[in-house]
Amino acid sequence: MKIGILIREFNQLENWELKIFDEIQKDPSLEIALLIKDGRTQSENPNTRPKRFIRFLKSGNVSGKLLFKIITIIESKLFYKHKQTVNRNDVIQRLSKIPVIELKPTRKGFLDIFTKEDAEKVGQYNLDIILRHQFHIIRGDILTAAKYGIWSFHHADNSINRGSPAGFWEIVNKNPLVGVTLQQLTPELDGGLVIDKAFYSCFWSHIKNNQLILEKSYSLLMKNIKKLQQGKYEPVKSKVYYNRLYKSPGLFTALKYAAGFYYNLLKRACMAITARLGVRYDCWTLFIGSGNFYESVLYRLSPSEPPANSFWADPFLFNYKGEDYVFFEDYSYKTGKAKISCGKVVNNKVTEVREALKLSCHVSFPFIFEEDGQIYMMPETGGNKRLEIYRCVEFPGKWELYSTAFEGELLTDAVYYKDDNGARWLFLSKAVGIEDDLCSELEIYQIDSLKLNKITPHKLNPVIIDASRARNAGAFFNYDSMLIRPSQNNSRGKYGYALNLNRVDILTLEDYRETPLVTVEPNFKKGLSGIHHMHQISGKFVCDAAYKYKM
């Protein structure tokens, strides 16, 4: 596949753009065949510093823009410094070897109007797509100079936010998510053909939001290039847009944002101090019930309280020799690490708690299952940066390492599923690029066996890019002839805010589709702040929920 890029001068390219170009060049099925630069002279170019400054003065709202600029500089320098995730010099060196043409569109207001001759010059390269990383609002025949047009990012969900700054207005408007829209450009500003969207949790920091949606853009692009290669290119028209066109905030809005940002900083500082005095924030607790979780009434459940200085989370039930046990993350506030503990379930309470698996690293999400008469556990062992499967030697507290995979990769909450045809699947989330985001993407792999000798990635990985439903929240289970995948809802800037139950509709190596059925929010007990995991076995279920704090 041949790709062209409308590109700025190399020294102006940002890390997220270089990441995109790097990923494309790593793929042997893709070729960056042409770079298209702005050939206008200094006097003709509307983006020179003096001309931008004149437009800034004429645009109005000077005081608001200046204050917001100061706020963002302080925030980015002191609190959320930008991360370099690629070798800048290496990528630029490779870009410098690609053919270049220069075009001189006519500027009218915010429009860059290209001629028919410009489009014909580009058309000679027989490009499949053109990526927009230069020029303003594009008009003219160049919009169709590539087979599948010009692809462009709008760093927001274009159904609710058209404008800028990226990642800011979602905070002001208290949106739970901040989006990215990949679109094929048409003459309608931010209203082109929607190719796909991605969604990330909306935090209280504009800089953090901005960095996240920019740096993660490459996942959305690469996923949809794969779909295009498979003949699954089906862009749709933008839906009705009912909000105003967002612009740089005014003075009052900038002050309001700054007050909220520093309030959150102060709040977290106070929490850090009181945590040292023994307050347990986000104290996860287990709730066990009889019957089916899908039909349950959660307020009737009673918690199994963890001991002082601990929380219990990520529970999995297992029936052994006719008795029910629960394995869970046993976290120590003192050490900041967790081990896997196991308790016997008696009258829907956790009893006889004992250590099941303790490693040198933090360990959680003890996915326990049985296959061919053997008991296995696939816990999250992020500190070891790999996937690990353990085999039970003596139940419940003696395990041996059975197999490993994904060496050197940080991944989380892996779930194993064997379908009715005997195919074996791994569902997991990875940290790619920005390592503090493990909640936005879901990847699927088919494996040959639990020995993990052959691992085949799904052709559309990541199959989901949406913080509100990507990350696993427990094992698959069947309900009313449906296959259900529990997932976390990590929206509102809150890890583990809510829990989803999703119906799996299609699972093949070429396609994956699921339908969200219900979202469970943490409202069933006073003082809860989150619910992010459940597990169902025959006649019994368990879930975890977090109290905002416990003494």
Tag the structure with descriptive keywords.
alpha+beta, 5-stranded antiparallel beta sheet, 9 helices, 40% strand, globular
Description:
By secondary structure, the protein is α+β, with helices and mostly antiparallel strands. Helices cover about 20% and strands about 40% of the residues. It is built from nine helices and 33 strands. Strands 3-2-1-6-8-10-11 form a seven-stranded mixed β-sheet. A hairpin with a 6-residue loop joins strand 20 and strand 21. It is globular and about 80 Å long.
Summarize the structure.
The chain is built from nine helices and 33 strands.
Cα Rg: 26 Å
Reported for the largest beta sheet, the result is:
7 strands, mixed
Structural class: alpha+beta
- Helical stretch tally: 9
Topology:
Elements: E1 2-7, H1 15-26, E2 31-38, H2 49-58, H3 62-79, H4 88-95, E3 100-103, E4 106-108, E5 111-113, H5 116-123, E6 129-133, E7 137-139, E8 150-154, E9 162-163, H6 169-172, E10 177-184, E11 193-201, H7 206-215, H8 217-229, E12 245-246, H9 251-276, E13 280-290, E14 303-304, E15 310-320, E16 323-332, E17 337-346, E18 349-357, E19 364-371, E20 374-380, E21 387-394, E22 398-405, E23 411-418, E24 424-430, E25 441-447, E26 455-457, E27 464-465, E28 477-479, E29 482-489, E30 498-507, E31 512-520, E32 528-537, E33 540-550
Parallel strand pairs: 1-2, 1-6, 2-3, 5-7, 6-8, 9-12
Antiparallel strand pairs: 4-5, 8-10, 10-11, 13-14, 13-33, 15-16, 16-17, 17-18, 19-20, 20-21, 21-22, 23-24, 24-25, 25-26, 25-27, 28-29, 29-30, 30-31, 32-33
